[in-house]
Amino acid sequence: MSTSARVRADACPGVFATHDAADGPLARVRLPGGAIAADRFRALADAADDLGDGALHLTSRGNVQLRGVTRPGLATRLSAAGLLPSPSHERVRNILASPLSDVAQKLAPALDAALCAVPELAELPGRFLFALDGGQGDVAGEGADVCWRDGAVLLAGGDTGLRVSAEHAVDALISVARAFLRVRGTAWRVSELPDTESLLKGIPGETREPRRFQVNPGLPIGPIGEAIVVAPVFGRLTSAQARAIAKAGDAVVTPWRSILVRGPLEAGTGLVADPAAPSLGISACIGRPGCAKSLADVRADAARAGLAPRVHFAGCERRCGKPAHEHVDVLATGDGYLVDGAFVPVGELTETLATLATLAQKGTQ
């Protein structure tokens, strides 16, 4: 692990401290564990319509962003809906939880409450990430700073060898976060620390030989028992789609820009429910005109590209929203794109990505 000196302040957006994007203020609403009750989903849809651009934008951390929030009152609305239980901690409530794990989903609100109950943890960097993995290996591969994986404690994705029960999982993760604050210096992430052994001191549990765990990122699109997993194109959920989900019941927003809907979803929502849909392989940052740093309207170019392997379109070198899993990197240059480092004119993107998709398919056969 390397030490990285940060020369600028952590500017992760929240509700009280928004980001000034080209299309107006951007507010990020944390959903610890991704779980959201139907009435709170409706409250977000109403806020998007009344105060923002009429859509909810899903993030790679299972959170929701509202863009173009040019009218006042968002914090008041979200507080009334129970979405801001601790104004002082709202930017640090970054918790992933396996969507299909009852254990992880039950631990997430307990971890959130414990986090908000420790005043000094409000000083955590906005990028510090907790994860609770029920053993599926899904969220364990999403780059969390500290993760409890069915008993195993992981730091920056690596197994520490420490084993704690579900009963003590919350205490263990909170202990790591407090220790990180004491030693972080200018670091934002655990991976930036030169030594992480001190983060585990005093945590009761068994010690075993660290092992390499398999990760299985993602959640299959389509029916799962009585529930269904759907995905909005490019993670943009219209307020009408959000209300349709709320009508079906409670839901879980996943870090893969999909939504686990726990009730019957009406037809005709425009949400992707076919696991073979080509759009599922493509993600993209907001691009132009929403971002002033973007060199292209990446979502329009990605939509025209059609069939593709796992690919992420980025408008600039920040590569916002890139997935944690392996993917083809498509970076805008202003007069074309770099596809995994090789220049490709916009007019040749469709052919290039189709070729890569064919090669990827042959490689799995």
UniProtKB/TrEMBL annotation:
- Tell me the InterPro entries matching this sequence: NIR_SIR_4Fe-4S, NiRdtase/SiRdtase_haem-b_fer, Nit/Sulf_reduc_fer-like_dom_sf, NO2/SO3_Rdtase_4Fe4S_sf
What are the record keywords, sorted?
A: 4Fe-4S, Heme, Iron, Iron-sulfur, Metal-binding, Oxidoreductase
- The residue ranges of the Nitrite/Sulfite reductase ferredoxin-like domain are 27-70
Q: Which domain of life is it from?
A: Bacteria
> What name has this protein been given in UniProt?
Precorrin-3B synthase
Q: Which organism is this entry from?
A: Amycolatopsis speibonae
